[in-house]
Each structure stands twice: as C-alpha cells, then as structure tokens.
Design goal:
Length: about 400
Amino acid sequence: MTASAKNTPASQRLASVSTAPPDSILGLTEAFLADTNPNKMNLSVGVYKDASGKTPILECVKEAERRLIDDESTKGYLGIDGLPAYREHVRQLVFGDRVEADRIAVLQSPGGTGALRVASDFLVTQLSPIRIWMSSPTWANHPAIFNAAGLPSDTYRYLGSDRTSFDVDAMIEDLDTKTSPGDAILLHACCHNPTGIDPTPDQWKQIAETVAMRQLLPLIDFAYQGFGDGLTEDTLGLYTLLDAVDEAIVCTSFSKNFGLYSERVGAVCLIAADAGAMKASQSQLKAIVRSNYSNPPRHGGAIVATVLDDAKLTDQWKGEVEQMRQRITRLRTDFVTTMKTTGQGHDFSFLLPQRGMFSFSGLTPMQVDQLKQKHGIYIVGSGRINVAGMSEEKMQQLCDAVAAVLES
C-alpha cells in the first residue's frame, strides 16, 4: 500500500474513536496506584483483605490446588455448560432441596459478571420485549451490563429519605405502579451492593408477593453468600422468592466466599416451571455461551469442586468463610465505635445493621473527593465503603480523615 493510500480518510477510521471514561470503581484503583501518599487506603474495589492488607488465598483453596496439580491429566476444553461436578455443587449449595433438580439449569460462567451478561442476553433474545427493574442505587456495573446486552432498564426506589434505611413501601409502590407483566426485576439475595442494607424476613415476603402478583421475572444477584449472616441464612431472601414464583434466574459467584477473584468463577442458574421448559431454556443459554466465550475456564471451577467434593475441605472452607464474615462485622463495629470518639464525635450507628462487604456511609460526592485529594483514601463516589478493606491498624487514621471532611 502506498503512503498516499494509507492517509486516506477510509484508512483512519479509528481516529474518530473517543476515549471511554474510567470505570467508576476499577478506575479508582488506577488512581490509587498512581498516588504517592504513603498513607493511602483503597476502600473502593470489593475485595476482602486480611489484617496485613493482603487478599489471602484460602487454605482450603491451596490444598485443592495441590491436589489438582498432582491429579489433573488434561487441559482439554470443558463442555459449553462447564464442569459437571462444579455445576452440581452450585445447585446443592444455592438451592439445596428447595427446588426439584430437573427444573434447574446450571451453567458455569466467567464470574458473576459473566453470569449476568449471559442472563441479560437470554432475556433480550428469548423474552423480548422486556424491561429490567433495578434498585436505586445498585452495583455500578449492573446498568452497564444490561445496556451492553441491549436490555432496557429502569429503577425502583430502595432507600428511605434518610438514605440509611430500606423503604419497602416505596419499592412496592414503584413496582405496583411502574412495572408491566413480564418485566424482569433485579434483586440482591443478600449483602445489597452498594448499601449493605437488606430486607427483613417480613419485607422479603412483601417483595415476593408483589413480584408474583405483578408477574415479574426475578433476576437474583447472589455474589456474597456467607458474608451476610451465614451460608445457610443468606438464602432466606432467595428461598422466599422461590416459594412465590415458578421461574427465576440466579447469578452466583465464588469470587468472594472462595477468594477466587482472579479465577472468574460463577454460574448462571435458571429455574423453570417444569423440566421441559428448563431443557429448552438451557439449550438457548448454551447457544448464547457458545457465541460469547464458547466454554468456561476449568481451573477455578475445579478448585471449588475439589473443595466441595471433600467433607474435610468443605468444613475447612465453611470455617474460613465464617472467619471472614465475623471479621467484617467486627471492622464495621470498630468503625462505628471509633467515629463516636473522633473529632466532634459522629454517630454512624446506622451502619451496624448493614451486612456484607460494603457500607453506605452517607458521605456526599464532595466529601468523597476530599477524602481522596486530602487524605489519600479512595471510596466509591456514591459513598460506598468496602468494610472488608479496612484494617485494625489504620482504623483511627481512617476515622480521623472521615471526621475531618465532615467537619470542614
């Protein structure tokens, strides 16, 4: 090709491509890494950190990997729906005996995000026209995933006017007056992201009754099983919904409760009214996967299956999850206690009922920016703080900084 041909407008199409804005969460980590403040803290991205500030590999995971190194005999492709042993363990862990096995399709996915995208593509290709309703606020990536799939979305109210409590009446009013039969609704099974504010058992019953009455299809994000009140206890909302409806989609992840963030281990689970509908839907989910990532990676799913195949490793895993859960609860309590005695004294007791890795601090975007600019402390613009990223050693430093921006 001649130099003149290379310089024609048709050969410079990429010059018109605009720069995408930084990711609202992961972009903060890039800024954090570039920050030269020696006392900086990253409380934005949702990863668990131990007292030393590291994201640890669970001991049960280390043992499972040792066994895999010794026993694994192939790197061949998995099937489109993933590792059979992994899929069966997902079914048992998430649903137990609550739903008949022949009504559930489980497909291994690249993390919870991959599961949400597969589910979104399914809604668009198989159930369109459809709109999905999500809480305001919700995880920042939810609307991006739905938009990328071409799935129209809208929001229902979640927080009360105080921004520190769940307003079930407002939520139900929105569902009653705004939704149409056949719409989908995104619900967080536990540890609501970003608020940490979950419905009570009675409120879950109200939500389930409304979902059923309005003929909505639940899409349930179940990314934090075990980090709220316990592995079994955290299924309460999910099971309440499944008692009220015959169809649902559940997207689950082992990033948090197995610490397998970089392995991308999740699953999309579809519950149908009967085995025939499940089989047909499963075939469509597999077609979506085939044209997207073809089949999932093996290693992360094999780790989970190896642990859950072994009673001793399973008990060890449950113990490690409980240790993480209890430590997060202690850190949240320590933050509230320390804030009471810092600066002019600040009441953050509204954080105590919150569950999971995140707490909704109530800080304004301006205060969040001051934390970053003046103190090197990074949290999400909504005011979401990753409690699991706090440390006992730096708790006073964190509270001093929060008090300073509140009092400025």
